[in-house]
Specification:
With 177 residues, the chain is an all-alpha fold. It has helices spanning 3-13, 20-34, 40-43, 47-54, 58-86, 88-106, 112-141, 146-175. 24% of the residues are buried.
């Protein structure tokens, strides 16, 4: 065996550094938790507060939410196309920033129209865009273990569904909606 072959054999059996895809899985799970303000599980806890403060009927509230959700579904085509052009990192940064602004705008809601617009932005960004970008990020980093990684992400999502409504209720009771 030549010295060159021995060096290659030793290099191939040396411990490899941490694969950055696992770091990206952690980032993706954080992105998943960031999308909960736009998910039904994050919004529905606020329904009694919306109805009481804005003097809305169940039908008005449900109608605004349903229409915003339908319109938001079409935005996924745009978000997917934009992420293909500008890249996932930039797109995620823009979406998280805009989702944060949409959450801040929730405190400025004064009636049905402004509530509809807020629902629209929360649903476009938190229900459509961010989960799409999270899944695409994982698919970019994992090929052979994508099924395992999506399973881990789904377990984290279930944990979020268990925690977010209670956290939102606690926040509403202590700080108002």
């Amino acid at each position: 065996m030549k010295d060159n072959d021995t060096d290659q054999l030793a290099a191939s059996s040396a411990p490899q550094p941490l694969y950055h895809g696992w770091v990206m899985l952690s980032v993706a799970v954080l992105g998943l938790f960031a999308c909960y303000p736009g998910q039904t599980v994050g919004i529905s806890v606020f329904n009694p507060s919306y109805r009481e403060s804005l003097n809305l009927s169940h039908s008005e509230l449900a109608g605004a939410y349903a229409i915003a959700t339908l319109v938001a579904g079409f935005a996924s085509f745009v978000v997917g196309s934009v992420s293909d052009r500008v890249g996932l990192r930039r797109c995620i940064g823009m979406v998280v920033t805009l989702l944060g602004l949409a959450c801040l705008c929730t405190s400025c809601v004064t009636g049905l129209i402004s509530l509809f617009l807020d629902f629209l932005f929360l649903r476009v960004l938190g229900h459509g865009a961010l989960p799409l970008l999270v899944d695409n990020t994982l698919a970019m980093w994992f090929h052979r273990r994508l099924g395992l990684v999506i399973g881990v992400k789904n377990v984290a999502a279930a944990g979020g569904v268990a925690v977010v409504p209670g956290l939102n209720l606690w926040l509403i009771h202590h700080f108002g909606w």
